[in-house]
Amino acid sequence: MEDYGINPQMMQNIERVMFTPQQIQTRVEELGNRISRDYAGKSLVLVGVLRGVIFFMVDLMRSIDIPLEVDFMSVSSYSPESRDMGLVRMVKDLEISITGQHVLFVEDIIDTGLTLHYLLRTLKTRQPASIEVCVLFNKDKRRLIDMPIKYKGFDIPDYYVVGYGLDYREKFRNLPFLGILKADVLQNGID
Ligand code: IMP
Ligand code: MG
């Protein structure tokens, strides 16, 4: 397996690479071009959820060539073993006002859809002019709440994936690709 110059200590936890940095970059640029066309002449605000979205947000912003604002929220962290189904706590709110603005909600990955559902509901009460969703990786196998996704990068199967901002217990975010975490890491912890 191509190791992208990543140190072996990190690589030994990865089953395989699902998307290369180049594949991700190409797709992100396509999304950015579409968004630039669709929102031309409008006041666009990109809203992201920390911390998984950081790589995607930076690359997406670079690919959008219309004026925009960006802001972030943060929710209580997701742990693969213990998840409060349906309960997402906002830890950090937006700092800019989205009332009357066209909001594009940018997410790294959607799994059950609970996080997004909760956050969209909250943002809609602030009466933005419009609100749409842009997600890079869509895992719809375990979806509990149907979500209208206007901009989608990739549909992916139900594996635990890391890299390109996505973590397992806060690790692996700095991998430049999207990789499948080895099953035994989920069971026995990081090697
Ligand atoms: P949902 O509420 O089930 O849609 O979960 C969404 C959140 O769970 C995402 O924003 C991620 O933070 C996290 N998540 C879901 N699947 C994965 C994964 O495969 N790798 C890393 N984080 C994930
Ligand atoms: Mg996230």
Distance between the termini: 18 Å
**What percentage of the residues does DSSP assign to strands (E)?**
25-35%
Task: Give the SSE string.
Answer: HEHEHEEEHEEEEH
Most strands sheet: 6 strands, mixed
Helix content: 25-40%
Rg, nearest Å? 17 Å
CATH structural fold name: Rossmann fold
Count of distinct structural domains: 1
Output the CATH class name: Alpha Beta
Q: Please give the order of strands in the largest beta sheet.
A: 4-3-2-5-6-7
SS field, number of helical segments: 5
Question: How would you describe the shape?
Answer: globular
Which architecture would the CATH scheme give at its second level? 3-Layer(aba) Sandwich
Mean pLDDT across residues:
92
Number of strands: 9
Bound molecules: inosinic acid, magnesium ion
Structural class: alpha/beta
Low-confidence stretches: none
Explain the overall architecture.
This protein is of the alpha/beta class and about 190 residues long. The protein has a single domain, classed as 3-Layer(aba) Sandwich (Rossmann fold), CATH 3.40.50.2020. The chain has five helices and nine strands; from the N terminus they run H-E-H-E-H-E-E-E-H-E-E-E-E-H. The strands form two sheets. Strands 4-3-2-5-6-7 form a six-stranded mixed β-sheet, sandwiched between helices. Helix 2 crosses helix 3. It is globular, with a radius of gyration of 17 Å. The chain starts with 7 loop residues before the first helix and ends with a helix. The model has no long low-confidence stretch (mean pLDDT about 90). The structure holds inosinic acid and magnesium ion.
